[in-house]
Amino acid sequence: MERKPLDTLISKNGLWVSRNGRLHGVKKCETSQKYIRIEMDCGDIVTVRNSKNSRSARALRNHKFQKPCKRCRLSDDRINEFSRKISRKDETEIKIVRSFRLEPEKPPESVTAKITQGIENINSPTQINNEPRAGITANSATNHRSTPKTAKSSSSPSKPNKKKTFQPQKTKSMKTEFTSLQKNRILSLLGPGEMISFSKEKRSFAELESTLTLQRKKDIREMYENSRENNLGKLERTITEFFVDMGFLEVKSPILIPFEYMERMGVGEDKKLSEQIFRVGDSMCLRPMLAPGLYNHLRKFDNVLPDPVRIFEIGPCYRKESDGNSHLEEFTMLNFCQMGSNCNREELEYLISELLDFLEIEYKIEADSCMVYGDTIDVMHKKMELSSAVVGPVPMDMDWGVNKPWIGAGFGLERLLKAKHDLKNIKRAGRSESYYNGISINL
Ligand code: ATP
Ligand code: 9VF
Ligand code: MG
Question: For 54-95, how does the pLDDT look when each residue is reduced to its tens digit (9 = 90+)?
C-alpha cells in the first residue's frame, strides 16, 4: 500500500508526535515543496521535512507515542482514539522500516533552520559541495535510529538519542577520538591556512566545532566589513585589467555551444575525452574549453583589428572529472591568444611570466603534450598544472578558417587561487554553496 506523506498524516490525525515521543495537538500546519511547519496547541513550532519515511511519519502512521503533551490539553477521547488504531500489520511495517534505516551517514530527518543550511545536492555539475553534516550539533539533530516507544511499552521513556555516531569518544588518556564524519566536519571548518592534529586534540568534538564555527562567523563578518569582494570574481577582474592593459580585447563567448565545435576541436564522440563533456540535448554541450569561441573571434577580427590580433576570455567551463584535489566539474578558464606577427615561444613565455609575476604566483615551465594541440608548454606550481600553452599554428586551424601563426595559453582561475592561498582542496576556490572565499559557510 502506498505510504502517505507526513503532511497527509498530520491533517488526517490533527496530531503530531515530537522527537521525544510527545503527542501534540496541531493548531496550524503549513506545507512547502519540501518542508512542513507545524504549530502545536502548546505553542511549540517545528519545521520538518515532508517525508514518508521520517520517524515522525512512522509514529503517526503506527499511532505510536510516548505520552501526551500536558500543555496541549488533548482530550482523553482524542488520545484513546489515536492509540486504538494500532494494528499488527503496523507493527510489522515499523520493524522493516527500522532495520532499513540503520545507515549512520544519512542526514537527520528533523530539520531545524540550522540544518537546512547544510542540505546540498552532490550530483549537479555546479559545484554544490558534498559537505560533511556530522557537525550538526547534538542538540539540534535527531538521531534517525531512535524510535519513540509505544504508549504500551514498559521500557523507559525515549529521549532524543545522543547520536552515538556523532559523539567523540574519550579514551583513558583523555584524548578525543573523532569519527570520520566528525573529522570531515572539523576539517571543513578550518580556515584556509589552518591545520589540526586529531591525535593530539583534547577538546571534544562539540567544543572544537563551536570554537571553529565562531571563528568562521567572525571571518565572514570581517570580510563583509572590509572588502566584500569574492576571490574568484576579484581574480577575474584583476586578470581582465591586466590583459586589457596589455592590449588584449576582452571576449565573452557562449557557454552553451554546438557539440559540433568539439568535433572540430578533434574531440568527437569516438574520443575518450568526449566522455568528459556535459551534453545538452541532441546537439549542444557546455563548453569544456574556450578555444572554439576564441577561434571564431580570431577569424572574424582578422580583417578588422590591427596585427597582431590579441584577445582573451575568462569564463566558466565544464568537464566531467573523477574527483581530485585540483579538479572541479565547473571551473573558470582564462585563455589569452595572439594571432599574426610575433607569435613565438619567447613572446608566449614573456606573457605568462608577466601574468604570474603580477599575481605573485611561483611557477616553472615543463614540456607536455595533449591530444588537441600536440606539444604544449605546461606551467606548473609545485605538482599542479596551472596552464597549458601552445605555439601554433596547428593543422586544426584550417577547420576554423584561421591561417596565421598564433600563441595562446589556458589557465584555471581556481587553480591560481589554490596556489596563491595554499588551499588544500580546489573546492574552496570554486563556485560553491559551502565556502565563501575559502571559508565554510555551513555555520
Ligand atoms: P589536467 O591534466 O590537470 O586535468 P588539462 O591538461 O586537461 O588539466 P587543459 O585542457 O590544459 O587542462 O586546461 C587548461 C587549464 O585549465 C589547466 O591547466 C587547468 O589550470 C585548468 N583546468 C582544466 N581542467 C580543470 C578542472 N577540471 N578543474 C579546474 N581547473 C581545470
Ligand atoms: C592553448 C588550453 C586555438 C588560437 C583559439 C587558442 C590556445 C591551450 C589552451 C585549453 C584548450 N590554446 N584548455 O588556443 O590558446 O583549449 O584546450 Si586558439
Ligand atoms: Mg593541460
Answer: 888 888 999 999 999 999 999 998 998 888 876 444 433 323
Asked if residue 401 belongs to a domain, the reply is yes
Residues 243 and 386 in one domain: yes
What's 31's DSSP letter?
E
Report yes or no on 132 lying in a domain. no
Pocket of ligand 2 (CB under 6 A): 289, 291, 294-295, 298, 335, 337, 372, 388-390, 392, 406, 408-410
Handedness of CA 393, 374, 333, 342 (dihedral sign): negative
Q: How far is the CA of 438 from the centre of ligand 3 (A)?
A: 25
Nearest alpha carbon to residue 21 among 72, 71, 55: 55
Using only the alpha carbons of the chain, give its radius of gyration.
29
Tally of structural domains, the chain: 3
Q: What is the mean pLDDT of residues 220-230?
A: 98
Mutation pick for ligand 1 pocket among 415, 427, 428, 431 (CB with most ligand atoms within 8 Å): 415
Give the whole-angstrom CA distance, residue 441 versus residue 325: 20
Same domain, 310 and 410: yes
Q: Whose CA is nearest to atom 11 of ligand 1?
A: 388
Contacts 24+ apart (CB under 8 A), 209-215: 209/135, 209/137, 209/185, 210/137, 212/186, 213/135, 213/189, 213/443, 215/191
CA angle 120, 126, 128 (to 5 degrees): 25
138 inside domain: no
Q: Report the candidate in 423, 401, 403 with the shortest Cα–Cα distance to residue 414.
A: 423
Q: Where are the beta strands (DSSP E) in 103-201?
A: 169-170, 176-177
pTM above 0.85, yes or no: no
H-helix or E-strand containing 364? strand 364-370
Give the pairing type, strands 406-412 and 330-339: antiparallel
Which one is predicted more confidently, 426 or 30? Answer: 426
Q: What's at 97, amino acid-wise? A: V
Considering the domain architecture, whether residues 182 and 319 belong to the same structural domain is answered as no
Among protein residues, the one with the nearest Cα to ligand 2's atom 7 is: 408
Question: 349 lies in which domain range?
Answer: 231-440
222 and 270 co-located in one domain: no
Backbone angles phi, psi at 245, to 5 degrees: -65, -30
- Indicate the residue among 98, 116, 141 that finishes a domain: 98
Q: Counting beta carbons within 10 angstroms of the beta carbon of residue 42, is it exposed (0 to 12), middle (13 to 18) or buried (19 or more)?
A: middle
Lowest-confidence pick of 145-159, 345-359, 385-399: 145-159
